[in-house]
């Protein structure tokens, strides 16, 4: 019997797990995740934007948690050692007739408590962003806006929770939930779990789990967003995150630098039915590049190195759904966490932990580990640090991914640390091996060999992202596998 089970190991579930790990739960805390790794769903495919907080309607959970999450991000990045940069955001106005919309956005932000907001005129705008579109006439400037690595944030939260005693059960899909006298019985693909309290942070599937315990049904709509990622040679094309005045489908297409030095554009916004529908389309990418061209003078299309799509968990109320479910004591929904969910995650973690504490109060740990050390990256190290790493482990001198300068030592660290990588994508998200210009074209075979060696398994068992996504289907010569 667990005290608390969190369903879902995305950024929201990981943030909740980290906050719960501060407390002395005698029956322990666990996270159940249907995928083979953390950060496999919505959290792995988003803009990585730390929103300032001027978009959400005043008085909503989104508005309050956005501003709180934004204020926590810089300190959290120091505690957990992930990439974050406060680069500021600009919301472009293209028509003098729309200045009232820009002023209303300013007023909303001020009501929400966003600091430093102001409207800037075209001369200052062009000084800040020389490549901005000639059509822009003014902009809302939010210096509190920032960018973060979504993988780095999620993995850091989960690793720290794990180090503080939270159990993570991967490849564990929740199939059925039943009420018991003491709490809930969760039937999964890996057996039965029991818990006094259940936190439903299952992203796109939060409605399915909610509907197992409640007569009042929830409906999550997958909202697909397609993105283009540009080579690092285009990374300085803009220095701020550039938005357009929002529409009913969100904040429109943005253009932004990433914390790793690339340029990114997206997302589109199309409601679909398939909760696994992460395919890109020619129509979607064409629309994306066209709309992105409204913000900057010339889209460097020749420098696109990849495209991808992510799904946002949209709930029809328009606000986050967080709280104990009526008629299901001890079952806490954390649903409809779409944009700005990544920004809100640290604040959501605290908010949900407070709800759990009201239901099952226990003291805080005296030995909670606040800090977590990330993987030492040779690409970011100076000469002295590189020599030190190589002296400790010569594998740090063996470059595997030349595009991103990732070494064998970093990949080994990614595999053997808490909640270590077991797939090619798992290594990619932890080290950036395969995220460069060639998109794994050269480094993937060697990375697969390292995974097999370090995990003590055959290369035929290594997958791209779990399940049946194997690279090898068999051997073409008899007994070669045991040779």
From TrEMBL:
Record-annotated BFD-like [2Fe-2S]-binding domain positions: 399-453
Pfam families attached to this UniProt entry: DAO, Fer2_BFD
InterPro entries recorded: BFD-like_2Fe2S-bd_dom, BFD-like_2Fe2S-bd_dom_sf, FAD-dep_OxRdtase, FAD/NAD-bd_sf, G3P_Oxidase/Oxidoreductase
Gene3D superfamilies in the cross-refs: BFD-like [2Fe-2S]-binding domain (1.10.10.1100), D-Amino Acid Oxidase, subunit A, domain 2 (3.30.9.10), FAD/NAD(P)-binding domain (3.50.50.60)
SUPFAM superfamilies per record: FAD/NAD(P)-binding domain
Annotated FAD dependent oxidoreductase domain residues: 3-354
Protein name: Glycerol-3-phosphate dehydrogenase
């Amino acid at each position: 019997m667990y005290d608390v089970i969190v369903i879902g190991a995305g950024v929201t579930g990981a943030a909740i797990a980290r906050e719960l790990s501060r407390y002395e739960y005698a029956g322990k805390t666990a996270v159940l995740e249907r995928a083979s790794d953390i950060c496999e769903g919505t959290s792995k495919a988003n803009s990585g934007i730390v929103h300032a907080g001027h978009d959400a309607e005043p008085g909503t959970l989104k508005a309050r948690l956005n501003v709180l999450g934004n204020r926590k991000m810089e300190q959290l990045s120091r505690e957990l050692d992930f990439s974050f940069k406060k680069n500021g955001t600009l919301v472009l106005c293209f028509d003098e007739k729309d200045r009232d919309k820009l002023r209303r956005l300013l007023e909303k932000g001020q009501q929400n408590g966003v600091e430093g907001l102001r409207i800037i005129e075209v001369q200052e705008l062009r000084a800040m962003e020389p490549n901005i579109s000639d059509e822009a006439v003014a902009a809302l400037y939010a210096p509190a806006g920032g960018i973060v690595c979504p993988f780095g944030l999620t993995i850091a939260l989960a690793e720290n929770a794990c180090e503080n005693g939270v159990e993570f059960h991967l490849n564990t899909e929740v199939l059925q939930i039943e009420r018991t006298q003491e709490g809930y019985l969760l039937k999964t693909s890996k057996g039965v779990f029991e818990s006094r309290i259940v936190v439903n942070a299952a992203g796109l599937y939060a409605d399915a789990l909610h509907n197992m315990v409640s007569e009042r049904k929830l409906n999550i709509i997958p909202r697909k967003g397609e993105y283009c990622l540009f080579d690092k040679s285009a990374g300085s094309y803009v220095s701020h995150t550039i938005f357009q005045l929002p529409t009913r489908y969100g904040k429109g297409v943005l253009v932004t630098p990433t914390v790793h030095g690339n340029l990114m554009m997206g997302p589109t916004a199309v409601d679909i039915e398939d909760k696994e529908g992460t395919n890109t389309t020619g129509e979607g990418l064409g629309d994306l590049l066209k709309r992105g061209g409204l913000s900057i003078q010339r889209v460097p299309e020749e420098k696109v190195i990849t495209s991808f799509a992510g799904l946002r968990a949209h709930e029809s109320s328009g606000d986050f759904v967080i709280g104990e479910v009526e008629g299901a004591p001890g079952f806490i929904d954390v649903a409809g966490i779409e944009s700005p969910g990544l920004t809100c995650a640290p604040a959501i973690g605290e908010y949900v932990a407070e709800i759990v504490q009201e239901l099952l109060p226990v003291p805080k740990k005296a030995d909670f580990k606040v800090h977590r050390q990330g993987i030492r990256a040779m690409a970011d190290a100076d000469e002295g640090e590189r020599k030190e790493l190589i002296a400790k482990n010569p594998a740090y001198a063996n470059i595997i991914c030349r595009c991103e300068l990732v070494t064998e030592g970093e990949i080994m660290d990614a595999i053997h640390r808490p909640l270590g990588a077991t797939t090619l994508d798992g290594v990619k998200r932890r080290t950036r091996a395969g995220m460069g210009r060639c998109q794994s074209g050269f480094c993937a075979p060697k990375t697969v060999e390292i995974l097999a060696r370090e995990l003590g398994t055959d290369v035929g068992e290594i997958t791209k992202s779990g399940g049946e996504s194997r690279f090898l289907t068999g051997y073409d010569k008899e007994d070669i596998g045991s040779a």
